[in-house]
Structure prediction request, 257 residues.
Amino acid sequence: MADRIEKRIELKAPVSRVWRALTDHREFGEWFRVKLDGPFVPGQMSRGHITHPGYEHVRWEAVVQKMEPERLFSFTWHPYGIDPKIDYSQETPTLVEFHLEKTATGTLLLLTESGFDKIPSERRAEAFRMNEGGWTQQMKNIESYVAPKP
Amino acid sequence: MTANRQAPATVFAALGDKTRLLLVAKLCRGQPRSISQLTAGSRLTRQAITKHLRVLERVEIVHSVRTGRESRFELDPEPMEEIKKYLDLVSKQWDQALSRLKSFVER
Prediction:
């Protein structure tokens, strides 16, 4: 059984544009929906909070791993580390990697998230609870965001 | 049995082994199987197969049922389904984040 998630997406934008959207902390925040305290620096903790309506109390924490310009951006984090009362720092994080490749029409983005074998089972249960509670609303938020503006 | 659920789930780790994956595949066919049946056709010894079955038992993917003098092993798909659901959930979130990224860089 695979312990990773892999996504491929073709973007009709130059690699330099995609790189900026990924690694400029303000631009990253725009599409990821997080307000970050400062720029991404390899080896350093990135902090902030989620800006999704209804999830503003949720902190964002990730450790930036690699920033190889226009090629690779990666960080480790705790997926669904959403309960402010729980210290997730003792748990093994998952690794998120964005690989970029130039194509004829723009950029191929390959996303992988790996390391799910170390996630405690309690956390998975928590993710499901969160899913039941707020997912429907979240879907609506996303829909209204991506829909073309008149 | 219930105490196991408190421990960190290592279902992935348990399945990250060819022999164990093969055992699960054999058990997927439905009926409970004895250690002898599971050892048949394998290069591994009975003891080795038993050890692998214990690993799967510990993460509650399989459980044994005693019939007479021998134990038969049966698949319990629940933990695997739970993991699949979790990954689907995280996966769906990435789909949405990436589609927001797409409209962000393409506008």
Q: What stands out?
A: Residues 9-76 of chain B form a domain with the Arc Repressor Mutant, subunit A fold (CATH 1.10.10.10). The first strand of chain B starts at residue 33 and ends at 34.
